[in-house]
Amino acid sequence: MTPAPAAEDIGNDTSQAQQAEKTRLPGFGLPVNYHPVGDSFPTAISRSPEEDCRRRILPLITLRELEMLRIMNEITDKTDWHIKKTEAIAAKGRDITLRMMDWVIDELRYKAEVFGRTGAVSVYTGDVVKSDSALSESFRLKLQRAAKALEGVPEKHKDWHPGPKNTVLDLDHPSLFPLVYGRSRILERGRTALYDALKEYYSCTTSGGDDGLR
């Protein structure tokens, strides 16, 4: 029996991998209950060239700091947060102590200055930023118009998100289109672009008969 590939080779679509063998995924060339060997989630974030880039060790932080980060993340999601930060903090202030609030205020003042210069803000560790200006206004309007087609379905077909009744509409939730073993089509080699997806779809195959539990 051919040995199962390491985790880093699962779904690999580089030219070298394509020459070696076809795509092998759980339920498609591998047992459905296949468990990868090695690092499942490699990362490019590394502190130094000598550090193992396949893993990332982050410093531990307290629950209080996590709560402050959560509050700052919610505040910076709001429109004009950098202008109305005092009001936004006051609305969230009941969740934290006075000393924690002082720290949040100081941190948001600094982030507001950075946001004013760059148009972007980061909260959590990992150098992931969010911005209200990274995309052009014309693109935003185009995206809104495209979403109207998904919003304008009959009421009985609308997929309201669980929670507060009819306040959040899931336009295209992944759970509506799950992977079905033996039915979902899979591209055997490489990847395709959006403009070519329909043509490639008809050349895709489904999982074979030897992909069951082992």
From TrEMBL:
Please state every residue range assigned to the domain named DUF4246: 25-85, 99-201
Task: Give the residue range of the signal peptide.
Answer: none
Q: What superkingdom heads the lineage?
A: Eukaryota
One Pfam family of this chain: DUF4246
What name goes with this protein? Uncharacterized protein
